[in-house]
Amino acid sequence: MKYLCLLYFDGKQLDAMSAEDKKTIDRDSLAYDRELERRGHFIAAQALQGPDSAVTVRIEGGKVSTTDGPYAETKEALGGFILIEADDLNQAIQLAGGIPLARRGAVEVRPIYDVPQP
Amino acid sequence: MGDVAPTEIEAIYRAESRRVLATLIRLLGGFELAEEALHDAFMAAAERWPRDGLPANPRAWLVSAGRFRAIDRLRRRARFDAVAPELAARIEAEASDAMPETDQTIADDQLRLIFTCCHPSLPGDAQIALTLREVCGLTTEAIAHAFLTRPPTIAQRIVRAKARIREARIPYAVPGPDELAERLAIVLKAIYLVFNEGYSASSGTTLTRADLSAEAIRLGRLLVDLLPDAETEGLLALMLLSDSRRAARTSPEGELVLLADQDRSRWNQGQIAEGRRLVVAALASRRADPYALQAAIAAVHGDAPTAEDTDWGEVVGLYDLLADVAPSPVVALNRAVAIAKRDGPAAGLSLIDALLADGELADYHLAHAARADLCRRLGQVAAARASYQRALALARQEPERRFLERRLSELPPE
User: Fold this and answer.
1) N or C: which end of chain A has fewer CB within 10 A?
2) ipTM
3) What is the pTM of this model?
4) What letters, b where the CB count within 10 A reaches 16 and e where it falls short, cover A29-63?
């Protein structure tokens, strides 16, 4: 089964870190992606730019309207994702627990919904 | 012989993965590390076996591959986890002076796993979830589906149970002789709960529930193999003899069919024969225990070609023994019903009325249903109606409710 691991953390906390610490986090995160790849769990992963770079799009009365900022304004914002392949939810939870950034925020694990073929 | 088909590796996974996991937990000292190692070992097998051919002993190969992959991974993890290199070194040192795994140690590992999953310091529902996932290899999602609950609920039970095993340092061991009986009783209770969950009639989900009963029977067989004992034999016999009637106990429309009305040609004679053999062995080897006695009662029914041929005297005698070793209001109720069959409805009715007067069965729908049935047979229509209505008010499962409604509608006018 496929699961999406959504990484939430406080961007301000990350901004306050030294360049050296940031580099370590980036290196560890990339290393974990490679670890998942080696073990056959990795499908895709990306980090996101900060929530202040977000634009939220809606269709209102048939017209596209946009607002600055993320859809949900929270202290811990969506900062990245990893799409994994796992045998079941408990294995997905275990793999999510190994994500280095999980130590600085939270990881939401969501099973992928297979849309039935019409 | 360089061609090993993926289906062959899958078959080995189904046959060996639980045994390999049980051994890896002992060698690596924890569930998480062992589960990762199991995964890695089969990854390695999928890569190597098609190229190099099937190893002479795939199980030993997998254990060894899992162990060395775990050591590698702990070393790579050193930067995040200060104790990882130390653990890696210890596992490596133990690996170099370990004896090869014998069939006996492998069997003991499976017992260790079962006893750890059913450790008394884990809550009952966690014991069941953990056993089904670790010992039977069911996915979290499959367990949730079978228990009609959501996967995150089951997942949390498993996560918490594993944390508890780690934090309380629950040993990965088969209990010693002094506590074996007590601990075995907990394991058997968990297996029987899994069976009953799968056996209790519930419309719509009958298929997945039958799977649960099959898992419980598989666990019972494993336990009889690993730990032959009157109690484990008794439980397996009870499950087989109950399950033998599965096809006959619901009509094609999903309605409940009582034992007396079942089409006995649809009973599974193979399960009845196996159950009967086990009952005989269990009752011969030791003082009668509750599972073996309940199985013996089921075997008496299994022996009767028609409901009228049932040896009710034998059934009452077995209930007398059961009431002696495991007294409970439900056993007393079943004994009263058997006495009604042997001596007539009036004899049973006075016993049931006495039980209901005690109060403990006042909210048990089957006590009122049994009373209603005896009143009906005695021609006491008003009393029968009142008791069926009481039973209906208390019954929760749809097929049982429909059955009671049918009985009510069939009562003659007063």
Assistant:
1) C
2) 0.90
3) 0.85
4) beebbebbeebebbeebeeeeebeeeeeeeeeeee
Query: In CATH, which superfamily holds the domain spanning B325-414?
Result: Tetratricopeptide repeat domain (1.25.40.10)
- Cβ contacts (< 8 Å) between A3 and chain B: which residues? none
Domains and their CATH numbers in chain A: 2-111 (3.30.70.1060)
Domain boundaries, chain B: 1-101, 325-414
Instruction: State the Cα–Cα distance between residues B151 and B92, nearest whole angstrom.
Output: 36
In angstroms, the CA B316 to CA B234 distance is: 19
pLDDT tens for each residue of B313-354: 999 999 999 999 999 999 999 999 999 999 999 999 999 999
Residue A33 tokens read as: 């992606």
Contact (CB<8Å) A39/B151: no
For chain A, say whether B43 makes contact (Cβ under 8 Å).
yes
- For residue B76, list chain A residues with Cβ-Cβ distance below 8 A: 31, 35
Q: Does B133 touch chain A (CB under 8 A)?
A: yes
CB-CB neighbors (< 8 A) of B36 in chain A: 39, 94
Two tokens, residue B145: 């589906």
